[in-house]
UniProtKB/TrEMBL annotation:
Region (Disordered): 913-982
GO molecular-function term, one example from the UniProt record: guanyl-nucleotide exchange factor activity
Highest classification ranks of the organism: Eukaryota, Metazoa, Chordata, Craniata, Vertebrata
Keyword ATP-binding: no
Any one GO cellular component localisation term in the record: cytoplasmic vesicle
NCBIfam families: PPR (TIGR00756)
Residue ranges occupied by any MABP domain in the UniProt entry: 38-197
Keywords associated with the record: Guanine-nucleotide releasing factor
PPR repeats: 799-833
Any one GO biological process: regulation of Rab protein signal transduction
Presence of the UniProt keyword Ubl conjugation in the record: no
Occurrences of domain UDENN (ranges): 189-638
Species, as recorded: Hucho hucho (huchen)
Annotated protein name in UniProt: DENN domain containing 4B
Length: 1304
């Protein structure tokens, strides 16, 4: 078994910025293309033109609204002073950050805000009259602090709106939701403004790679060359700052890359500024940055030079919060110091020593330094794929209605452009958009954070989802056919010539349910959500983390569940319109129109929403979804989960149904601590000096990194690539567990549930069996017959694995017609194939070679072959008669020959050969018929003596060959038969002496029976007979014989518990090995015993090897078998190590397969094992009783007793007298007899040995009636104390369902 690394948390660490060799400018001299530099607004003023006031110098007056109407602020006043708003741009002051409106008397000015009370000419700047019935209205604003004048979101544009004239806020503008016109007439007037980053003088370059770790590419995931562009999407900027500028905090951003195979790779980066040397700039560049005066070229010393840089990690897991904390720590480590350890030690420690959270270690606390730590938790176990989506941020930034509008846009494949000034929000919301349409998958261009260099994708003639920084609109205008979504202002902008998207275009009932659910969740979100939780302390991480964020995590799932419920209702019933491939494929077989009944699906939907469904079915997403449902794909588990959601949602009130059930089985409180790198010490034990300090973020030195350690290596998990048996998905396992829990409480269903898992075991083994057989097609036909027989027996299958495996094997061995028959058999059984089974079926019929449609030549050759074989059949009896010299029975042979010839030539059929007959009998007959026991056993002698008219003998071994030969003859058959009651009594009386002789042969000289009573007890202290230790060497085909028994001893009450009672005591837990004792209700682990004996001549009497393993329920055995195949591959089932290393699984499989008469090659492993001495034929016999009865306890009645009196009462249908006789006999014995078998079991085995297996069902009825009769006289509790109660209905049903192939 090989080993590999567990899932790597971080794949690469990247430093991006100006490449060492120099980066190319985005345009000549580093100027941005199409640059529209707009200075921020620094001053506001209100003027009254009606009073003669003019626009101040340097100010711009807003005279028109967006629609070209007059922009008077005082239109509602009686004495209109014609007031207008003016603004001034510049860099001489800190920019204005926000605008507002204040109603005096109703509210007060907020801290940090300023109110425009007067005009530049010292008149009142109130926009209302301010009379007694009205309040005065003023404009307010908030300015950035002096130290934060750069890189802040300042106001860059202002506009006024008249909604009554149809005016709306321009794209990227924020609207102040307060009416400026508070007068009694005039239209409502609103203020809106645009915010952008207040930039300094800058040169912009293309981002390049500075350094990376590791240097060599990971084989499964090479480092993409475009990573630096995504780390710095707006390019690398070299900027000139004033000296008093406050240091800028790092900006966190995330992005998503898609590999060639479709896998997502998540990136987390922080952008920061560091000092840049002036010597690296040319004179022209220095002039552009304001570092040199334009006239005399003198250096300007009151400015600093900064360059933007980024550090990034790439991972296949979207742990964005964890990565942000780690990158922040790395950045802070680089700007502080000096340090003892280099920065590289911390990076390698995080990448190599922090394991991926798993069920064994669900919480990982990483101590980065004495003051920095982070907590890494196992992702929520859900059938949905893990992504970087944040549905909470989606709902926060868009609201319920706009979220539904974007759902409509994604379902109809519109061009979507998301933009925000927060780069990390772009990725979270974009991921949520492509996740909320599950199971439909977005296949068009998808770039959550698009670099400026790749902005040309917005002109692509295809649908896309692209996210950009809002500063993109400072440079370019978006295309007219793109739907722009501003996440900062929650506005959706579309071209005016198109009908705006509305969530009401969605199906009415489902859309209304979705909006109502999201509205309620939005209210809950506003109550509980708090930002800026401090997580630096260790106490918070260990105590308050789950308390603070547990509800947010639950809310995230509830929002996701709302969208999943909508999609389930939207596509309800889609599987009924899938068209399976039932004939030889053609060129159009794989077209969506051939795989899906599109018109039938559309007709089943509401007529009022036909337009929406027509648009949906024409999308690439829907077409790909149908193909994924029809053929094998890597999304089978997800699609099967969606089918289950569709089934759950098909109720009257789907909003009350939970669709996502969290798997809490793997959650735990176990926390693993990861310590920071250990600091070295001097030889004398003192601390090492601090050598490492950095002026800028360093270029990584590979020699300072630590090598990966081996503690993260774990065994490889995953099925062998060549394994044709698909594993059960988590949903199938969970559904099987739920069904088992339900059936365990229903006696007549529990046995059928166990039986279904037994057949599932055999079908899991079927690929190994077929591979070992030379006649592959015949083996597949046998499996098909097993399926038909399962339907006849009404077996309750826990899943579709039986059908699925056979379908896949049909495809593997080129039997498409048989695959179609399996599908029809599946539908006949009332089972609708799920996504996985349906895909493997289509794969089998599509990729296999179908038989030729021209059968003429083949039929003629088949007829010629049949004629020749018929002639051979004619000659065969003639040769036999010639050899034997017999001329009798000619008439019968001639009739048979004529019939054979008619069958072969006319019907073009050939009777099955000997091997076919055996194979068919193994499938058809062994299920319902029990093979007759061999003649030589004691039970056989008892049956011959007591019921001489029936030729049934038991298959148990006798004590010796001589005893078998002397007692094996049958008695004469009487010519006249009286009534059945008289016949049984007469047979019992006549058999008395012969029965005594037969039992004496077994007991030998150790038998000491008291002749004074009909039922006597021997001296059990001197029993030393070789029970079941001898062999009949005259048996045909002598070789190895394996005797197996599941009879187990309960150590608590010293009672033997038999097979059906063990089955009834099993639970539905597939990890529980215990069964419960029917007598004392104690749980115990039942055992399965096997004894391998040599039937050949000259074999030793003693020394037969015995094997004892745990007897597993089919549910537990299936789980263990699937785990074995997952870890070691399917080939282990055909190797000898299965018997040695996995003996429990091996012997349990042998037991169940032979119990049901299912063919297998497991016995070939017994022949080649060290347990046997030679290579010979092996046969298995399943015993009901123990292999070796304990001679220190009460011996079984069917072996040692003269039981004619008990049998007489049984035969006379007076079982209660037999029970009374047994109890009276025990009471007469001195001391307390050690009885292991219950009274029912003693009498059952006695009846079975004496009268045959056909009497078992009748005996159960008689015994139950006798027990009810004796309960009135002796008491039910007294009978239970003496273990005289019959088996439970659950146990009886288990025996009935598994039939009775066991020998006594």
């Amino acid at each position: 078994m090989t080993e590999e690394k567990c899932p790597q948390l971080v794949d690469y660490f990247v430093v991006a910025g100006l490449a060492p060799g120099g980066s190319a400018p985005l345009d000549e001299e580093g100027q941005q293309r199409g640059c529209r530099v707009v200075e921020p607004v620094t001053d506001l003023a209100v003027i009254a033109r009606g009073l003669g006031e003019e626009v101040p110098e340097g100010f711009t007056c807003i005279e028109k609204t967006q629609g070209g109407h007059p922009a008077e602020l005082s239109a509602g006043l009686i004495n209109n002073p014609h007031m207008y708003l003016c603004y001034r741009r510049g860099h001489d002051k800190p920019p204005i950050l926000e605008l507002g409106v204040l109603y005096e008397g109703k509210e007060v000015v907020k801290q940090g805000w300023y109110m425009i009370e007067t005009t530049p000419y010292s008149r009142s700047a109130s926009l209302s009259s301010g009379g007694p019935a009205t309040h005065r209205t003023f404009l307010t604003y908030r300015r950035a602090p002096e130290s934060q004048a750069l890189h802040t979101l300042g106001v860059t544009d202002i506009s006024l709106l008249l909604p009554s004239k149809g005016e709306v806020a321009p794209h990227t503008f924020c609207r102040v939701e307060k009416n400026l016109n508070t007068g009694i007439w005039g239209p409502a007037l609103y203020l809106c403004y645009k915010r952008a980053v207040a930039k300094a003088n800058a040169l912009v370059y293309e981002a390049g790679l500075i350094s990376r770790y590791p240097e060599a590419d990971v084989e499964s995931f090479p480092l993409p060359e475009s990573v630096p562009m995504f780390c710095l999407p707006m390019g690398v900027t070299v900027e000139s700052w004033p000296l008093n500028t406050k240091y800028q905090l790092p900006v966190f951003s995330t992005f998503v890359l898609t590999s060639a195979c479709g896998d997502k790779v998540y990136g987390a980066a922080i952008q920061f500024y560091e000092a840049f040397p002036r010597e690296c700039l040319s004179e022209r560049q220095s002039v552009r940055l304001g570092l040199v005066s334009v006239v005399d070229r003198r250096p300007i010393t009151n400015r600093t030079l900064q360059v933007k840089k980024s550090v990034c990690v790439l991972s296949h897991w979207p742990f964005f919060t964890v990565f942000q904390k780690f990158l922040t720590f790395v950045y802070r480590y680089s700007i502080s110091g000096p340090h003892v350890l280099p920065l590289e030690k911390h990076i390698s420690s995080f990448m190599h020593n922090v394991p991926f959270p798993s069920p064994q270690r669900p919480r990982i606390l990483v101590q980065l330094s004495p003051y920095d730590n982070l907590l890494l938790c196992q992702p929520v176990s859900s059938p949905l794929l893990l992504s970087g989506a944040s549905f909470v941020k989606l709902l926060q930034n868009l609201g319920p209605e706009n979220a539904c509008v974007l759902l409509l846009a994604v379902l109809t494949e519109h061009k979507l452009l998301l933009h925000s000034l927060r780069p990390d929000v772009l990725t979270s919301v974009s991921e949520a958009l492509v996740s909320m349409t599950f199971p439909l998958r977005w296949h068009c261009p998808y770039i959550p954070l698009c670099p400026l260099r790749l902005a040309d994708v917005l002109c692509a003639p295809m649908p896309f989802i692209v996210g950009v920084h809002s500063s993109y609109f400072d440079l370019y205008d978006p295309p007219t056919d793109v739907v722009c979504v501003d996440l900062d202002t929650n506005t959706i902008f579309q071209a005016e010539d198109k009908k705006p998207l509305s969530w009401r275009s969605l199906p009415r009932k489902q859309a209304k349910m979705l909006v109502n659910t999201l509205t309620n969740l939005m209210k809950t979100l506003e109550k509980i959500y708090t930002t800026g939780q401090e997580e630096a302390t260790l106490e918070f991480l260990l105590t308050d983390y789950d308390l603070i964020y547990g509800r947010q995590k639950q809310l995230e799932l509830e929002i996701q569940e709302a969208f999943l419920r909508f999609m389930s209702c939207l596509l309800r019933g889609y599987r009924t319109y899938l068209l399976p491939i039932t004939q030889a494929p053609s060129d159009r077989t794989t077209d969506c129109s051939s795989l899906f009944n599109l018109q039938g699906f559309l007709k089943s939907r509401e007529r009022t929403h036909q337009k929406f469904y027509t648009q949906l079915t024409r999308t690439q997403m829907f077409t790909q979804f149908i193909e994924e449902c029809s053929f094998v794909s890597d999304r089978h588990a997800c699609l099967e989960f969606f089918d289950e959601c569709v089934q759950k949602s098909d109720v009257e009130k789907p909003e009350e149904v939970r669709l996502i059930d969290l798997d809490e089985a793997h959650s735990g409180e176990h926390t693993v601590f990861i310590m920071p790198p250990e600091e070295p010490q001097e030889p004398d034990g003192s601390e090492c000096p601090t050598h490492y300090s950095y002026e800028t973020f360093p270029v990584l030195c590979m020699d300072l990194f630590d090598r990966p350690q081996d503690q993260l290596r774990v065994p490889t998990k995953g099925s062998a690539p060549s394994s044709p048996a698909p594993r059960r998905t988590k949903q199938e396992i969970k559904l099987a567990q739920k069904r088992a829990q339900i059936y365990s409480a229903v006696p007549d269903m529990w046995s059928k549930c166990l039986l279904g898992h037994c057949y599932g075991l055999w079908f899991i083994y079927l690929p190994t069996f077929v591979r070992a057989e030379s006649a592959k097609v015949r083996a597949l036909q046998t499996a098909y017959e097993v399926l038909k027989h399962m339907e006849t027996r009404k077996v309750v299958l826990p899943d579709e694995v039986c059908y699925r495996i056979l379908m896949q094997l049909c495809g593997q061995y080129g039997q498409p017609v048989l695959a179609v028959r399996v599908l029809l058999e599946m539908k006949k059984a009332g089972i609708t194939p799920n996504t996985i089974t349906y895909a493997y079926y289509n794969k089998a019929v599509l990729e296999s070679k179908w038989p030729s449609t021209n059968q003429g030549g083949r039929l003629r050759w088949a007829k010629l072959r049949n004629v020749l074989m018929a002639v051979a059949q004619f000659r065969q009896p003639i040769r036999q008669r010639q050899k034997s010299g017999s001329v009798g029975s000619r008439t019968g042979q001639d009739i048979f020959t004529c019939y054979l010839f008619f069958t072969i030539v006319c019907k073009n059929k050939w009777p099955p050969g000997p091997r076919d007959t055996v194979s068919r009998k193994a499938v058809d007959e062994n299920y319902n018929n029990v093979s007759p026991p061999s003649r030589g056993s004691l039970a056989g002698k008892l049956q011959q003596l007591l019921t001489p008219t029936r030729h049934r003998v038991s298959g148990r071994r006798a004590a010796s060959v001589d005893a078998r030969r002397s007692g094996g003859e049958n008695g004469p058959v009487p010519e006249q038969r009286p009534s059945r009651k008289a016949q049984v009594a007469e047979s019992l009386l006549k058999a008395k002496e012969r029965l005594y002789n037969a039992t004496s042969e077994v007991r030998g000289q150790h038998s000491s029976l008291s002749m004074g009573s009909d039922v006597d007890l021997p001296d059990t202290t001197n029993l030393a007979f070789p029970l079941r230790k001898s062999w009949d060497t005259n048996q045909e085909g002598a070789g190895l014989e394996v005797l197996m028994s599941s009879c187990s001893l309960c150590r608590s009450c010293n009672s033997l518990v038999y097979d059906e009672e063990i089955m009834a005591g099993w639970t539905s837990d597939d990890s529980n090995l215990n069964s419960s004792c029917p007598f004392c209700s104690t749980t115990f682990v039942p055992l399965l015993n096997a004894e391998i004996c040599d039937l050949g001549p000259g074999s030793s009497v003693g020394g037969s090897p015995q094997v004892t393993v745990a007897y597993l329920s089919p549910l537990v055995l299936r789980k263990e078998l699937e785990s074995l195949l997952e870890n070691e591959g399917e080939a282990v089932l055909a190797q000898g190590q299965l018997l040695d290393s996995h003996s429990i699984i091996f012997w349990n499989m042998v037991w169940y397969f032979h119990r049901l008469g299912l063919p297998s090659n497991l016995l070939q492993l017994v022949r080649s094992s060290p347990l046997t001495s030679e290579n010979s034929a092996v046969r298995v016999r399943l015993l009901w009783d123990t292999l070796t009865p304990d001679t220190d306890h009460w011996p079984p009645l069917y072996i040692l007793w003269r039981i004619h009196s008990v049998l007489r009462w049984v035969g006379m249908n007076e079982v209660h007298k037999g029970i009374t006789l047994f109890l009276e006999t025990i009471a007469k014995q001195p001391g307390t007899p050690k009885i292991q078998r219950s009274l029912y079991r003693e009498m059952l085995f006695l009846t079975l040995a004496a009268m045959g297996r056909d009497h078992v069902a009748a005996f159960d009825k008689k015994y139950k009636a006798a027990y009810q009769r004796l309960s009135g006289s002796l008491g039910r509790e007294e009978l239970r104390r003496k273990r005289a109660q019959p088996p439970s209905p659950k146990a009886v049903d288990c025996r009935r369902s598994f039939l009775l192939p066991l020998e006594c």
